[in-house]
Amino acid sequence: MTRDAVIERPEEQEEVAEFDLMDKQILNVIQSAFPMVERPYAALAAQLGLSEDEMMRRLVELRRKNVVRQIGGIFDTRRLGYKSSLVAMQFPAGKVAAGARVVNEHPGVSHNYERNHAYNLWFTVAVPPNSTIEETVARMAERAKPICYRILPTLRFFKVGVNFDMVSGEGNSNKEVIGKAPGTERSAVPLTDEDIRVIREVQEDLELLPEPFAPMAERLGMSQQEMFAKCRVLEEKGLMRRYSAVLHHRRAGFRANAMAVWRVPPERALEAGLKMAESRWVSHCYERPTYEDWPYSHFTMLHARSREECDALARDISKESGISEYLMLYSTREYKKTRVRYFDA
After folding, report:
1. Is residue 168's pLDDT more than 60?
2. Is residue 303 annotated as a catalytic residue, yes or no?
3. Are 72 and 243 a contacting pair, CB within 8 Å?
4. Alpha-carbon distance 16 to 283, whole Å?
5. Residue 117: inside a domain
6. Residue 219: inside a domain, yes or no?
7. Does residue 39 or residue 279 have the better pLDDT?
8. What DSSP assignment string belongs to 29-57?
9. Average pLDDT of 83-93?
10. Is the pLDDT of residue 170 over 70?
């Protein structure tokens, strides 16, 4: 579990960290792709005209301010054989925090937020191949005792890519649009024991050492170059999306976190999803199942500097997509934010 894995605080209490233009340029680079080379901080420094010592000093400070949450491998859950889903639970007033604590005990829960809706607790959970989402959530519900819950797995994947342009203060996530191929095959890929060992290593938060990959390679019993080659193969197979930093979006200045949910006619599901995914402010875009009491099939995550800005962005998306019926679900409290730990012994 990372240092900020379990948090219970109102989001409005989050303060924006202070940093200069060079810090913003560093954040822009490392959230897109962190160099997998023997001396990565030296490589970053050369790219931005700094010394290695200055680069490391700045990253130490950005971590201290909790702007950089983690640096490591970002993996495709399905390609690894895991199953995952978004889950919505409804709790009585005053019982949300207690329910969230129960949910957080599961190691596959990576994101857990209270949101402004009757379904007031929203979390993502991943389970290994020998488990099922339905049984896992049912066991959670037995202990957490929500009024009801809805399991909302991904039916169609349009976009994922949380990138923020720190210099301009705008969203910048178009690079990850699946777009022309939303049905891209994401079934499980057979893994060797060595694959799993490498995944276990590169999912860990990278240390601030001149040669941070050296201890990882040593534990794997291979050279750094051999380890980098293995990681390239993982990327080619679609197992690892990228190796990069994850930012704390509110600390970085994007204080509003809205999950916009859209009521889309089935015959327009593909067209509307592609249109929504075009927005550079949309970091995630999925189609999920509907229920009698939940008619919203499309989910888009919006991160902006204020609620007013998020609301304006949603109006723009509504105009562009032609979908007029939607809700803005804002996170009011963060209970957990971390990465799933795969193949954790």
Report:
1. no
2. no
3. yes
4. 20
5. yes
6. no
7. 39
8. HHTT----SSSHHHHHHHHHT--HHHHHH
9. 96
10. no
Report CA 338 to chain centroid distance, whole Å.
8
On whether residue 312 sits in a domain, the answer given is yes
Residue type, 238: G
What DSSP line would sit under 59-88, residue for residue?
A: HHHHHHTTSEEEEEEEE-TTTTT-EEEEEE
Residue 218 predicted with pLDDT over 50: yes
Q: What CATH number is given to the structural domain containing 100? A: 3.30.70.3460
Q: Residues of 321-336 as b/e, b for ≥16 C-beta within 10 angstroms? A: bebeebebbbbebbbb
- Greatest alpha-carbon pair distance for the chain in Å reads 59
Selecting among 111, 248, 249, 284, the annotated active-site residue is: 111
Tell me if the pTM is above 0.70.
Answer: yes
Indicate if the pLDDT at residue 165 is higher than 70.
no
Q: How many domains does the chain have?
A: 1
User: Which domain covers residue 163, as residue numbers?
Assistant: 83-180+250-337
Residue 43 covered by a domain: no
Residue 321 has pLDDT above 90, yes or no: yes
Cβ atoms of 25 and 167 closer than 8 Å? yes
